[in-house]
Each structure stands twice: as structure tokens, then as C-alpha cells.
Amino acid sequence: KIVDPFGAAVRKAFALFPHADATGHGMAFVTAYLEAAWYKGTDITNEKGLRSVLQDADLDPALIEKARHDDTWTALLEANLQSMLADNLWGVPSFRVSDDHTGQSDFACWGQDRIWRVEQEITNRSVGA
Questions:
Q1: How far is Cα 30 from Cα 127, in angstroms, rounded to an integer?
Q2: Are 107 and 56 in contact (CB under 8 A)?
Q3: Mind listing the pLDDT tens digit for each residue in 52-90?
Q4: How far apart are CA 79 and CA 63, in angstroms?
């Protein structure tokens, strides 16, 4: 049971992220959104589904109305898009592992089948930390 969000549905959710993040619930929101889409089969393409996601993340569903009148999220989305494209990535899930302490180059990849590689990069960079 999944609901694959695409296009406008993702933009609606992304518009909520800065508000969730400002309250310290950014990752809780992302987790609840992904769980709703890929595990629960919640229709996150509509307002009812987004309200459910917000509640699961312990956020006020009134954020939907607040986000409706705020387009500051578009700059964050554009920055993320440009960063993703700079790493020759094109979709989700995309991963980037960086470490300013070791001087190693960032590692970036696409696809959930590469999580083993992300884990390996994190482990390798943690050894000298």
C-alpha cells in the first residue's frame, strides 16, 4: 500500500517543511510523510492526508494554512535541487555524506539500493573521528 507523491503533491509537502523545521520537528515531519506515503498508504496528495502527517509529527494542522500564504520555501527547494544536480543526482532518495574533519570529498549517490554504500562511507569517515 503506497501513494507515490509526485509534482504538486511534493511541493505542498515541501512548503510545510520550513515551518515544521522551525519548531524543531523537521525530521519528524519528513519521517511521518514518508511513512504515510510508503508504509501506511495515506493519500498525502490531499489536505486530509497532510493533516494526518502533521498530527503524526506532533505538529499543528493549521500549518497548512500558514504555508499556503508563504512561498519562502521555494528558495530552499531550488537550493536543494541545484545541489542535487551538481552531484549528478536526479531523484529521490538521494544521499550525500560529507565530513569537514577528514578532508575527504563528499560522497553522493541515488537509490535505496545504495544504502549499504552510504553506511560504508559513514563508517569509513567515523574511524578517524
A1: 29
A2: no
A3: 999 999 999 999 998 988 998 999 889 988 988 999 998
A4: 23
